[in-house]
Write a structure and sequence with these properties.
By secondary structure, this protein is of the alpha+beta class. 50% of the residues lie in helices and 19% in strands. The longest helix is centred in the middle third of the chain and has 53 residues.
């Protein structure tokens, strides 16, 4: 069960179903309320029309006892004291009006009735009474000829032509409203689950199709993890959606990881190779010295030891850079650093302005020192150092008058353990890490390190760092 509802497809289907269910319930409730309200308004209108019809008869002189109220809907006429004076035929029970009495008391005939009839031609017709404007609407029930139902009652005040105040209560059945609401509710109870099923099925199918490439990516990633083959790539769908972007990003990550792992393997292999030579030489010298002390080459042993020490320091610095160690934020004058590093070096000239940058003094000293070591190793006679501003950048240029760097090698020389002149570099004690360290330090400080042709024909290394 947890696995079923733990999938994206199941959660999407469940979420869509819940959203649609809530929307359907809210829409159904609104429809039912609107339908009921409209039907009740119609019942109110019909009840008011019936009440006005009876009130019109009373206002024009019709006696309550002479009213023909029928037996279709409940009607009551009460006086100001709440006494029933007229009721519809067949009315057996009623509630929701001014009185629950359903039979009007017998009223004795007026002694002047006959005279009125005889003298009808000699008298003037009375003026019509007044009918009230305000109608009061209430809910109630009534039983007519044994059938009970709910009604909406309209109460309308009227004043007869002889000044008697009466109130007419006329009811309109709510059977139509109840029947319509019940029918609509039944349709909703049957239709809503079917609609929910259709929405859930459609969501399930659409989500499955949309996530099919993701499943392919997952399977391929699992296979890559199991085989440890970083050369493999996940399938990229021929679309322009988020899944395709995920596949492309995953492949880019795999490519970067493959490059990093390969670089790490090459680094370990090269480091082992570089360490093996001085260690073997040092061991040989110590073994010879142990057997024949007079043959011990102490200067050679010291040279190999120094070489090992420098190589270990370079490898440790590269490991720290690879681990993401920050450059620091101390302010320093790059011109002063350049002058300090050039001091005591033969054939090195410096033109350095005062330029402030933020970073690690020791790391930046190492960069400029490595650039100067490289320039002196390849220069014929002169090495020039220039420190200047260029917009928002501090620029350090180290140029020599040597043979320069071929364009095809201008990126390769910044790789680790790369030496264009293998024999000469070994003689000088270089391991091919100086320029790689310089570029990595520059990158950690937010800058760049590039090489191009110098005006004197040699190589010009340009270090750019952001100003403070």
């Amino acid at each position: 069960m947890n696995r079923l509802f733990g999938s994206v497809r199941s959660r999407a289907t469940l979420g869509a179903g819940l959203v649609v269910a809530v929307a359907l319930v809210m829409a159904g409730a609104a429809v039912l309320l609107s339908l009921r309200s409209n039907l009740i308004d119609q019942a109110d209108t019909q009840a008011e029309r019936s009440a006005r019809g009876v009130a019109t008869l009373l206002a024009t002189g019709k006696s309550p006892a002479d009213l023909d109220l029928g037996d279709e809907n409940p009607v009551q006429v009460v006086d100001a004291n709440g006494t029933l004076v007229a009721a519809s035929d067949g009315l057996e029970r009623i509630s929701g009006t001014a009185t629950d009495v359903v039979k009007a008391p017998a009223r004795p005939g007026s002694p002047s009735d006959d005279d009125s009839d005889d003298d009808a031609d000699d008298t003037t017709a009375p003026e019509p009474g007044e009918i009230g404007d305000d109608v009061e609407l209430t809910d109630g029930t009534a039983t007519i000829d044994g059938e009970s139902a709910d009604y909406r009652f309209a109460a309308l005040p009227v004043e007869t032509d002889d000044g008697v105040e009466l109130t007419v209560y006329a009811g309109e059945s709510l059977d139509t409203e109840q029947s319509a609401v019940d029918t609509a509710l039944t349709v909703m109870l049957i239709g809503f689950p079917l609609l929910l099923g259709v929405v859930a099925a459609a969501t399930w199918l659409v989500t499955r199709r949309a996530l099919r490439p993701v499943e392919g990516i997952r399977r391929e990633m699992a296979a890559i993890t199991a085989s440890e083959d970083l050369a493999r790539r996940v399938p990229e769908p021929d679309t322009h959606d988020e899944v395709a972007a995920l596949a492309r990003t995953t492949n880019a990550t795999l490519a970067a990881l493959e490059t990093s792992v390969e670089r790490q393997r090459r680094f370990v292999a090269d480091a082992s190779h570089e360490l093996r030579s001085p260690l073997a030489s040092l061991r040989t010298q110590l073994e010879v010295g142990a057997a024949h002390p007079e043959l011990l080459d102490v200067p050679g042993a010291v040279q190999d030891t120094v070489r090992l020490q420098r190589l270990a320091a370079d490898l440790l610095l590269l490991a720290r850079l690879d681990a993401g160690e920050g450059p620091g934020d101390k302010r320093l004058d790059l011109g002063e650093v350049a002058r300090r590093e050039a001091r005591g070096r033969a054939g090195v000239t410096v033109e350095a302005a005062e330029v402030e940058v933020a970073g690690s003094r020791s790391r930046l000293e190492r960069v400029i020192g490595n650039l100067l070591d490289n320039a002196q190793r390849h220069a014929r006679s002169v090495v020039g150092v220039t420190v200047r501003r260029d917009g928002a950048w501090a620029v350090v240029e180290v140029a020599d008058d040597g043979d320069g760097v071929a364009e095809a090698d201008r990126e390769r020389i910044f790789e680790r353990f790369v030496r264009l002149d293998e024999a000469r570099s070994r003689d000088d004690g270089g391991a091919g890490l100086g320029l790689a360290i310089a570029r990595d330090v520059a990158a950690r400080h937010g800058g760049t390190l590039t090489v191009r042709d110098a005006p004197a024909g040699g190589a010009l290394f340009e270090l750019r760092l952001p100003l403070v």
